[in-house]
Write a structure and sequence with these properties.
single chain, 369 residues, alpha/beta, Spore Coat Polysaccharide Biosynthesis Protein SpsA, Chain A, 60s Ribosomal Protein L30, Chain: A, eight-stranded mixed β-sheet, five-stranded mixed β-sheet, 12 helices, elongated, binds magnesium ion
């Protein structure tokens, strides 16, 4: 069976402050990501994007590079019901899938399950079990409960036979509206069949949903040989010790690992390509300056540090007293709060070069949003 897809992209992003469909998730807009999930499926005939008049250019940019003959644009109404009705007028395939554009993480597996269910049962809606208890509340008081085994969270895409869904809209009174199409179908046609939904298929509603969605992780590592007559700089703090790092710069392994993690998370080349260790301007340079320069690079790309997690591996000296100072210093250099940077120090159990105190090393992971 062939399907037309209606992508509902005309809602107001009142809870997010701006059009959330334009936000970037993994290098493409939320809208483009939702469209892409359907575009390559062999049973999808046409994708109808329902949007607001003033967002048509944005929709065109989201489908740029795709086969335009597979798309149609409908203008949304004042309610979801009206918007879907407008989109449905352009649907002609035997089946129709209706999807919220704000659910960009829908898997093709779910879409296939919904389509299969339409073929077999005439309808298909992804649903999730309710794990928390649900209560009816009036005036801030719980007045009743529900048997949660009988409750489900309902997601999209919601799939139906096109003619049957169209008939639901003709039976609806002019100003009546429904929460979604499954409600309409249940009212006018038959109970709706459910398939397994997924927690990944969440709707981006608050800024928090979006931040988690766009997280980027980076890893960094550095090691320096320990030599006499050099100061030991770790995490931007001078540590009292009779050995220090052999390096072109001040040899701060902690900051170097951190810089590599930041560059890695932002899709940049590594520390050596940004700050070459044979360039005269970096001779004995304070690594804190390199970290500040790195922050400028990632800021320009639009990223913010969410958190950083570091490990220092050194047989000696003991670092416990210095760690709070390093956290304060690095938090300030990165413009994040103290709680968002953690540093652990460990020995190498006397194993290998680090264990023999010939070298000192550090690992860093960061997340950017
Ligand atoms: Mg280094």
């Amino acid at each position: 069976m062939k399907f037309d897809v209606i992508i509902c992209a005309s809602g107001e992003s009142t809870r997010m402050g701006e059009n959330k469909l334009k936000f970037d998730v993994g290098g493409m807009s939320v809208l483009k990501r939702s469209i892409t999930a359907f575009y390559t499926l062999p049973f999808v005939k046409k994708i109808i994007v329902v949007t607001k008049k003033e967002e048509i250019d944005f929709v065109l940019s989201a489908i740029n590079g795709l086969d335009k003959t597979k798309f149609e644009i409908a203008i949304g109404g004042n309610t979801r019901t009206e918007s879907v009705k407008n989109g449905l007028q352009l649907a002609s395939a035997a089946g129709v899938l209706i999807h919220d554009a704000a659910r960009p993480f829908v898997s093709q597996e779910i879409i296939e399950k919904v389509a299969k269910s339409v073929e077999i049962n005439g309808s298909g809606v992804p649903a999730l079990a309710v794990n928390d208890s649900v209560r009816l509340v009036e005036n801030d008081k719980i007045v009743d409960g529900f048997e949660r085994d009988n409750l489900r969270f309902v997601q999209t895409p919601q799939g139906f036979l096109t003619d049957e869904l169209k008939s639901c809209f003709t039976k609806l009174a002019p100003n009546e509206s429904a929460t979604d199409e499954s409600e309409l179908y249940a009212r006018f046609v038959a109970p709706v069949s459910i398939v397994d939904g997924s927690h990944d298929n969440r709707k981006l509603t608050t800024m928090g949903d979006y931040l988690g969605a766009n997280m980027r992780v980076g890893i960094g590592y550095d090691i320096h040989r320990l030599i006499p007559f050099k100061k030991l700089m770790l995490g931007g703090i001078e540590v009292e010790y009779h050995l220090g790092s052999l390096a072109h710069s001040d040899g701060d392994v902690v900051i170097h690992a951190l810089i590599d993690a930041l560059l890695s998370a932002s899709g940049e080349f590594d520390i050596g390509s940004h700050f070459p260790d044979n360039a005269p301007e970096y001779l004995d340079i304070d690594s804190a300056i390199l970290l500040s320069n790195t922050m400028e690079i990632i800021k320009k790309k639009g990223y913010i540090v969410n958190n950083a997690s570091l490990i220092i591996i050194a047989e000696a000296p003991k670092l416990a007293d210095y760690i709070p100072l390093m956290r304060v210093k690095l938090a300030r250099l990165m413009g994040i709060s103290y709680e968002n940077i953690s540093i652990a120090a460990k020995t190498n159990e006397k194993v290998g070069e680090i264990g023999e105190n010939i070298a000192i090393a550090s690992y860093a992971t960061v997340t950017l949003v």
